[in-house]
């Protein structure tokens, strides 16, 4: 048995020696290229490069590719494009805070006939009293001796005329107190006919009243005027105490 094992070892050694001495003619064939593997993963971003040097213009031809990479000067502004469609309406925002009060404006001024007047100008009122005991002269404008109100001064007591300054609608009224018959007209440029009022009494103190609403233009006048109807001659010379009160005021000014 031992001889058999030794023989086997010798045979193996002999084979090894024979293989090591093989020449080129006994070499094996090249293997086939392996199949292409799957793409690899992207690499990590590289570090940021250093800032380049400023460009320097040189004499001579310049590479067009370099010019394309250079930043040029800003060009002129192009013409506006066509307006786009109107957008949707946004939601209503919250109310803003009240603004600061502005400075007072300048005082208004009268711009004449047909013009509008400020609230300070669109006012007119008067109340005057005749305290003269003589009978008002027939056919004459009644004058007055006492002025209670005359704002802003459209009535002239010495002449008895009210002169319209603010065009509009006015109310005029009078009251007379006497113990003799008194006849008075309300007269005006705005009336086609005078409005007459009479009171006939004998030795009884009574009140005569009359009134009218008039639409006046600028510079038209209104006044009271005495006239004779059925008075006795003795009444025309009466010098007992008498009172005539004449009032007028603007109801509203014209807005046109």
From TrEMBL:
The keyword Transcription regulation does not apply. SUPFAM superfamilies: TNF-like (SSF49842). InterPro entries: C1q_dom (IPR001073), Collagen/C1q_domain (IPR050392), Tumour_necrosis_fac-like_dom (IPR008983). It comes from the Eukaryota. Gene3D superfamilies: 2.60.120.40. Pfam families: C1q (PF00386). GO terms for cellular component: collagen trimer. Transmembrane segments: none annotated. PROSITE patterns: C1Q (PS50871). GO terms for biological process: complement activation, classical pathway; innate immune response. Residues 119-256 form the C1q domain. SMART domains: C1Q. Keywords: Complement pathway, Disulfide bond, Extracellular matrix, Glycoprotein, Hydroxylation, Immunity, Innate immunity, Repeat, Secreted, Signal. Residues 1-22 form the signal peptide. It is found in: Secreted, Extracellular space, Extracellular matrix. Residues 28-54 are annotated as: Disordered. The keyword Signal applies. Coiled coil: none annotated. This is Complement C1q subcomponent subunit A-like. It comes from Sander lucioperca (Pike-perch). The lineage of its organism: Eukaryota, Metazoa, Chordata, Craniata, Vertebrata.
């Amino acid at each position: 048995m031992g001889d058999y094992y030794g023989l086997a070892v010798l045979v193996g050694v002999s084979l090894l020696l024979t293989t090591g001495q093989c020449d080129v003619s006994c070499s094996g064939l090249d293997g086939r290229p392996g199949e292409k593997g799957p793409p690899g993963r992207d690499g990590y971003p590289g570090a940021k490069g250093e800032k380049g040097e400023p460009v320097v213009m040189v004499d001579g031809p310049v590479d067009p590719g370099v010019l394309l990479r250079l930043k040029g000067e800003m060009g002129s502004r192009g013409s506006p494009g066509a307006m786009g469609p109107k957008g949707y309406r946004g939601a209503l925002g919250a109310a803003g805070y009240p603004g600061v009060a502005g400075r007072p404006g300048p005082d208004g001024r009268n711009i004449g006939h047909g013009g509008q007047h400020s609230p300070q100008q669109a006012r007119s009122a008067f109340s005057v009293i005749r305290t003269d005991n003589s009978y008002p002269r027939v056919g004459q404008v009644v004058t007055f001796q006492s002025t209670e109100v005359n704002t802003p001064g459209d009535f002239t007591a010495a002449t008895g005329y009210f002169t319209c300054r603010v065009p509009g609608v006015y109310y005029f009224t009078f009251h007379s107190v006497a113990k003799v018959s008194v006849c008075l007209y309300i007269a005006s440029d705005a009336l086609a006919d005078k409005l007459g009022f009479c009171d006939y009494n004998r030795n009884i103190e009574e009140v005569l009243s009359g009134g009218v609403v008039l639409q006046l233009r600028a510079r038209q006048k209104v006044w009271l005027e005495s006239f004779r109807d059925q008075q006795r001659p003795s009444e025309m010379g009466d010098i007992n105490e008498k009172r005539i009160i004449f009032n007028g005021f603007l109801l509203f000014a014209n807005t046109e």
